[in-house]
Structure formats: structure tokens, C-alpha cells
Amino acid sequence: MESTELEERIAAFASLADPTRRRLYLFAVGRPDGVGRDEAAAGAGISRALAAFHLDRLIADGLLVAEYRRLTGRTGPGAGRPAKIYRRSPRELSFSVPQRNYELLARLLAQALTSAGETPPDSLLKAAHDLGVSLGSEARGLAGPRAGRDRLLEAAATVLDERGFGARTEEDACLLLGNCPFSPLSGQYIDLVCRANLALMNGVMSGLRVKGVEAVLDYNPERCCVVFQRVPRGAAAAGTQ
Description:
The chain contains 9 helices and 6 strands; from the N terminus they run H-H-H-H-E-E-H-H-H-E-E-H-H-E-E. It is mainly alpha-helical.
């Protein structure tokens, strides 16, 4: 008897019931470029052999995919064998009982918004910005009084990660959004969704009131379309901490 799509979804979620496997999964999907077995094992605090077992099980359950590449960046003779790299699967997973289809509603709304013109309406961008301000204010409260820029960005990463953006702080990128929670709509309605998302993240920065960081569009199908970058000293937007 062939399994139904619903049964396959249940099995995929059941795979994450194992705490070690779940920890590895979250570690892997938090790295847009993927992870090798050694890095995953170190990140989860387990042996390489155990990490390999669980990572391959996550592939079998459709939650991760694998590719092979040399981690050193070297090519040619003597460069060594390519390593097995684990990355987030493009498969979309959702499960509810009884069944709900919020994506269908979102598509209807997106179609209605784009039918009036090619650019997102001002009302949508304002609503996105206002929501972002509230999220930024929430993060600022989480950071505590007199928090510096790094602490503010860490708090913003926490708040945005809870909303499905796969956010984390990095030294060079300052704040990285590893996931687009609006996929697959963002692929079909890229201008509408991504500009609304940019307005949302600009609002986050306004509510956070952090200096020297700005949100910009940088389209990439492997992650969120918005990236945060440092503003050169002297060119930073006005703000107070």
C-alpha cells in the first residue's frame, strides 16, 4: 500500500522527534552554505559517526539534501576528495489537523494586490514597516537597557528567528536571514513579497534603533531576499541608542 502525502509529512515530522536528530537538523538548516559531518558533529556535541547516521536519515526523510564539494576550495590533483555537505531540502513541510491552507489565501491576496499594478501598494508597505517597528521594539526590550549594537542585533536575530527567518548574527554580515518564510509565494510574486519584506526589515531597524546597520535587497533563492550590512562610519543613518 502506497503512503499518502499526509502520511509522508507525518513521517518527516516524526523523524524530528529524536532530540539529537532535531539538533542536527536545526544546526544544518541554520547554515545556508550547508555543513559537513565534522562541523555538524562538533555543533551538536556528538561523534562524527553518530552525526553521519542521523544526517543521512534526515536525507532519507526528505528534510535535508546532500551535495559534494571540497571544503578547502582547492582543485586539481592533491586537493583531496570532495566532502559530503548537508543542506536544507527545498521541500515545504506543514501539517495541521484539520487541514488548513493559508498559502491559498495568501496567493489570493497577492493576486488581488498585483492586479492593481506592478508595484506594491503603499498601504502594504506601510503595514509591513509598522509591523517591523513593533518587532524591532520587541527586540530592543529583549536586549535590555543600554544594550550595545551587538546585543541589539542578537536580540533582533532571536525575534526574527521565532518568526521563521532563520536569523543569526555573523561578524561580517552582522545579521543574516537564512530562510524566507514567505516561500514559495516570494518566487511567484517576487516584487510584491520582497519589497514588503524590505519594508518590514527597515521597520525592524527603526524599532531597534541601532546605528550603523541598514537593510537592503539582495535576491538569493537560497535565503531571504533582505540582507543587513554595515553602514560606513560617517554615513550611518541618524538614530539613538
